[in-house]
Amino acid sequence: MGDCSEVSAMIFRCIFFFGLNICLLNACVAAQAIAPERKVVGHVIVSERDPRVRIELPQSVVYAGADRFVLYGIADCELHAFVESDAQKNVQRLYWVQFEGYLPSKPDLHHKYDSPRHTSIGGLDFYVDTWVRAAEDKTTPGSDLEHIQALVLAKGYKFAAGMMSLRLVHLLDDAKRKELMIIYSEDLGYGTKSQTTGALPLQ
Predict the structure, then answer these.
(1) DSSP state of 13
(2) Contact status, residue 76 vs residue 38, Cβ threshold 8 Å
(3) In this structure, is residue 103 part of a structural domain?
(4) Per-residue pLDDT of the chain (203 residues; tens, 9 = 90+)
(5) Which end of the chain has fewer CB atoms within 10 angstroms, the N or the C?
(6) Is 203 a domain residue?
(7) Does residue 154 fall inside a structural domain?
(8) What b/e string do you get for 123-148 counting C-beta neighbours within 10 Å, with b at 16 or more?
(9) Which residues constitute the domain of residue 86?
């Protein structure tokens, strides 16, 4: 994990500079579906349940698609990938948005997060943690990471040799069985260039 200054800088870039915006849309409605059910229009995701939110990403992103599957046989997982890349389709920034909930058949399972770092976006509280990953690091078979990588690679994009990631996790209620997860990753080399210096717009 990075130190406090690195974490603060990544949160700042993710939320303000890159335009992440989350708006609550009202109460949740229980439902089940096989295909991805959240709607994506351009750079905006609209979720009608769990939670009912509108997530607006930077206008510069390209939507790489969605996947929905049962994660490790225990959770309903729906993820969406957005990227910013150079002309050679090298990923400079990845926005990974995931809606996840344990299956009703697994009533004893609950999400457990212990990061002391928190931030608030759109009135929602998020756990915050960070890490650095090299391209050659092993990916667990069947993991959500494996699914997001396959989704992005299938569109012809290439990942950098090293990526720094910031994960935001919001637990929907005290039961801690459902979560909204947003992972922002950037090329380690790209994140240190000029766009991270100077005055950043606060809008």
Answers:
(1) I
(2) no
(3) yes
(4) 556 566 556 655 665 545 567 777 654 433 344 799 999 999 999 999 999 999 999 999 999 999 999 999 999 999 999 999 999 999 999 999 999 999 999 999 999 999 999 999 999 999 999 999 998 999 999 999 999 999 999 999 999 999 999 999 999 999 999 999 999 999 998 644 434 333 222 22
(5) C
(6) no
(7) yes
(8) ebebbbbbeebeeeeeeeeeebeebb
(9) 4-196
Cα–Cα dist 173/111, whole Å: 11
Which residues have a Cβ under 8 Å from the Cβ of 72 and sit 6 or more positions away?
A: 142, 143
In a domain, 90, yes or no: yes
Q: What's the domain count of the chain?
A: 1
Quick one: CA dihedral 136, 77, 51, 34, positive or negative?
Answer: positive
C-beta separation of 10 from 49 below 8 A: no
Structure tokens at 73: 């046989």
Residues listed for the chain: 203
